[in-house]
Amino acid sequence: EAQALEAAFEARIAAGEFIEAKDWMPEHYRRTLVRQISQHAHSEIVGMLPEGHWISRAPSLKRKAILLAKVQDEGGHGLYLYAAAETLGVSRDELLEALHAGRAKYSSIFNYPTLTWADVGVIGWLVDGAAIMNQVPLCRCSYGPYARAMIRVCKEESFHQRQGFESLLTMMQQGTAAQRAMVQDAVDRWWWPSLMMFGPPDAASTHSAQSMRWGIKRESNDALRQRFVDACVEQARVLGVGLPDPDLRWNEARGAHDFGAIDWDEFWAVVNGHGPCNRERLATRVSAWERGAWVREAALAHERKRAARRAA
Ligand code: 3HC
Predict the structure, then answer these.
(1) Could you give the CA distance from residue 131 to residue 135 in angstroms, rounded to a whole number?
(2) Are the CB atoms for 120 and 163 separated by under 8 Å?
């Protein structure tokens, strides 16, 4: 019986069908999706913090309004993805408890500091640009609720990436020399951590093979990283910024850019909690959770009263 179910499931995956929440699925497939979708949701919520820091410091009302809209979008993406994770039978509270206890991962990139206003533009250009590279294939993920969530998220991510690029173009073309130097400094600091967002090299990836067999991961970590590098080289040229990699050069034979070695020791240190801002990000999340408890209690009390009135 179990083998027949497994075989039918594999056939559906092979046929490119969407698996829905009520469909039979292997427990390992479900657990893999809970892991990835919850980490993705945590990344969106923690991702609000580096930029949120600059909402009250934005240089104009226009930039403040744009940044406010972007950070609100990230919050919405997080809630959307927690809802997708809940379709797999986990509760939002247990996912958040794991995050606040430091037991859940979120994207390494959000553990770096945002030191200047140019960081906000570079995050839009590089971090949201990398997120789009990684999230577009997820629109074809075999798990229906996740794939559908990604379609809306990707539409909003393209606004995030374009506003960042436009902000940098303004600084580079109309800014002072000091502002242009500020942009170059931010690019130098965010370039390598953005490449790390795609995950470890395929040869060191624990989940890629199985996730690709299940149609969860449609493109490998290295393939998406390479596509991102190739896209950024031309964008950097338009911006007039340099990329901090002396080994970056076009390889005609490969039809792609060769680039330098990534510091995987740094990556794993950040993933394992020892990045520049890991403690600060988690403390901020825990404090927000605790300070917001009264809102959740009030909403639940209100709902209990409404339910009692309906029952009366
Ligand atoms: N940060 C933290 N942990 C990472 C990581 C990263 N950048 N890349 C990989 N890892 C972890 C994996 O979670 C896994 O650890 P685990 O077994 O404890 O979960 C381990 O490193 C091995 O990596 P694998 O390649 O085997 O793991 P995956 O198959 O899960 O691939 C991934 C990693 C490509 C990030 C994949 O999980 C994925 O596509 N996730 C969903 C998309 C996502 O999270 N995107 C980035 C954040 S969203 C964002 O940027 C918001 C935007 O609005 C700015």
Answers:
(1) 6
(2) no
- What pLDDT is attached to residue 1? 84
Q: Could you report the per-residue pLDDT of 2-17, keeping only the tens digit for each?
A: 899 999 999 999 999 9
- Distance (Å, whole) CA 276 – CA 30: 33
CA of 134 to the centre of ligand 1 (A): 10
Residue range 236-274, pLDDT digits in tens: 999 999 999 999 999 999 999 999 999 999 999 999 999
pLDDT category, 185, cuts 50, 70, 90? very high
> What atom of ligand 1 comes closest to residue 153's alpha carbon?
53
Cβ neighbourhood burial of 215 (10 Å; 0-12, 13-18, 19+): buried
218 ligand 1 Cβ < 6 A = no
User: Which pLDDT belongs to residue 2?
Assistant: 86
- Tell me the pTM: 0.96
Give dist(CA 303, CA 156) in Å, integer: 32
Q: CB pairs under 8 A, 24+ apart, for 96-102?
A: 96/289, 98/38, 99/42, 99/45, 99/46, 99/282, 99/285, 100/282, 100/285, 100/286, 100/289, 102/273, 102/282
Taking each continuous run of H as one helix and of E as one strand, the counts in the chain are 13, 2
Q: What is the ipTM of this complex?
A: 0.97
For residue 77, the ligand 1 atom closest to its alpha carbon is 53
Pocket test for ligand 1, best of 31, 34, 37, 43 (most atoms within 8 A of CB): 43
Q: Specify the 3-state DSSP secondary structure of 258.
A: strand
What pLDDT does residue 10 have? Answer: 95
pLDDT (0 to 100) of residue 50: 96
Q: Which two tokens stand for residue 84?
A: 């997708």
